[in-house]
Amino acid sequence: MTSPQAGQLFIVATPIGNLSDLSQRAIETLNEVDLIAAEDTRHSKYLLQHYSISTQTISLHEHNEQQRSELLCKRLLAGESIALISDAGTPLISDPGYRFVTTVRDAGICVVPIPGSCALIAALSASGLASDRFSFEGFLPSKSSARRQVFETLKSDTRTLIFYESPRRLLAALNEAKIIFGDERRACLARELTKLHETIQTSSLAELTDWVSRDENQQRGECVLLIEGTNTEVTADEQEMSRLLGLLLTELPVKKAAAIVASITGGSKNEAYQLALKLQQKD
Ligand code: SAM
Question: What is the 3-state secondary structure (H, E, C) of 243-261?
Answer without folding.
Answer: HHHHHHCCCCCHHHHHHHH
